[in-house]
Specification:
By secondary structure, this protein is an all-alpha fold. It has 2 domains: 210 residues, Hypothetical protein af1432; 175 residues. Helices cover 69% and strands 0% of the residues. It contains 15 helices and no strands.
Length: 409
């Protein structure tokens, strides 16, 4: 086991769990063995270390729960979590652990039962740790085939049925913690893809299954990379970055064009209004037929100015992206309207998380592009209304002017 600092109580629980699991092991116990418990212990510790606000006490109780979660799995295949919780309670009582801590350990052991959804962060951690093997790059050659061999002793299941069960399992049980999603989801998706490939193959027995897994698991030989040449992995990234750069620049240019057009409409109609008020209205006493066209032109010019101003009104959001939003890859820290009310240290932390996670960074750029498009839709819609208003006012005022002029003769 990798070197992990643990308390004396955790050490005692570890010795007890190892002795109990190894003593109850059968020849067919290839998955629910001490190796699996060690892996869950290490995974839970790692996830907890990368999860904010986990206290030393919670870490200790979480580690204890991992050591007891499968301690009776080889004796009680069904509902062994209940037996494990009872086993943990008996041992912890003998060590004078307070009842509140015992109840927490029992709750964490019981939540590892597949059908029990987690209700808090500690339960999420132990659930993710218990299923960390499905995101491992050695899943097919280790846990997958070992668990199949272990289960086939207790019930009849063909390789095809087992593969199908695993695919359903992958779909039904997600990772919950931010760390597990970030570090294990990619491996989980790759393993699921390999399972789907296996399902399409003609596999009738375990020997054929192992052979096909070996074919899928064999890595191609590495070829020497020419100096100065880009790898295949690099090329899509550059293309994606260029796409974002061009799209964002185009959106910004379109936004500027819309603002310029709105300013032109405002300026032209302001001039029209000033001419109507200063030059036309004083002549209405001698030319009453000009009143109606002048009022129509004035009204539509004012309406056009109002619509044009609406199209350029800036809008921001509440200005705060919480740590929970960042951990769950929500929100967009790239746009100032989302962070203008955040504290500086929270913003710097969020940007650090954003820069560490390429997927989150690209999602933020996509959101920025999306909401720029929403803003452009609003600008150009009101701009369209503004032009309609301006043209309608001109045409209507000219038509009315002609009609009134003809009536005056």
């Amino acid at each position: 086991m990798a070197e992990i600092k643990t308390s004396d109580l955790v050490q005692e629980c570890m010795q007890l769990a190892q002795a109990e699991i190894e003593q109850s092991m059968l020849k067919s116990t290839l998955f629910h063995n001490w190796e699996h418990t060690k892996n869950v212990f290490q995974s839970a510790t790692l996830i907890a270390e990368n999860t904010p606000n986990i206290s030393e006490r919670e870490m200790e109780l979480l580690q204890i729960a991992t050591l007891f979660h499968d301690i009776t799995a080889n004796e009680e295949h069904k509902d062994h979590e209940i037996k494990g919780a009872e086993y943990a309670e008996t041992f912890l009582i003998s060590k004078n652990v307070n009842q509140e801590d015992i109840e927490l350990v029992k709750r964490l052991v019981l939540v590892t039962k597949l059908d029990n959804p987690p209700t808090d962060v500690l339960e999420q951690i132990i659930k993710d740790a218990d299923l960390s093997h499905i995101g491992n790059n050695k899943y097919l050659t280790g846990p997958f085939i070992n668990l199949y061999k272990e289960l086939s002793v207790r019930r009849d299941v063909t390789p095809k049925e087992w593969i199908d069960e695993c695919i359903v399992f992958f779909n039904e049980y997600p990772y919950y913690t931010y760390y597990a999603k970030k570090e294990l989801n990619k491996g989980k998706e790759k393993n699921k893809l390999k399972l789907e490939l296996l399902l399409q193959m003609d596999i009738n027995n375990i020997e054929e299954l192992i052979a096909q897994i070996k074919v899928l698991s064999d890595k191609p030989k590495k070829t020497k990379k020419k100096k100065g040449s880009a790898t295949k992995k690099d090329k899509p990234d550059k293309g994606v970055e260029t796409m974002f750069r061009v799209a964002l620049r185009n959106h910004t240019t379109l936004s500027k064009i819309a603002d310029d057009k709105a300013n032109t409409l405002i300026s032209v109609n302001a001039i029209i209004i000033s001419i109507v008020l200063s030059a036309l209205f004083p002549k209405l006493d001698n030319n009453p037929y000009l009143l109606m066209p002048a009022l129509i032109l004035l009204a539509f010019s004012v309406l056009t100015i109002i619509i044009s101003i609406i199209s350029t009104i800036p809008r921001t959001t509440h200005g705060v992206v919480s740590k929970d939003d960042v951990n769950n890859k929500r929100g967009n820290l790239i746009f100032f309207g989302n962070f203008h009310q955040m504290r500086q240290d929270d913003f710097e932390w969020g940007m650090g998380e954003l820069m560490k996670d390429k997927d989150y960074l690209y999602k933020s750029l996509m959101r920025d592009l999306y909401f720029l498009g929403k803003v452009l839709k609003k600008k150009y819609t009101f701009l369209r209304y503004g032009y309609f208003s301006f043209v309608t006012g001109l045409i209507l005022s000219i038509v009315v002017f002609v009609i009134k002029l003809m009536e005056s003769y």
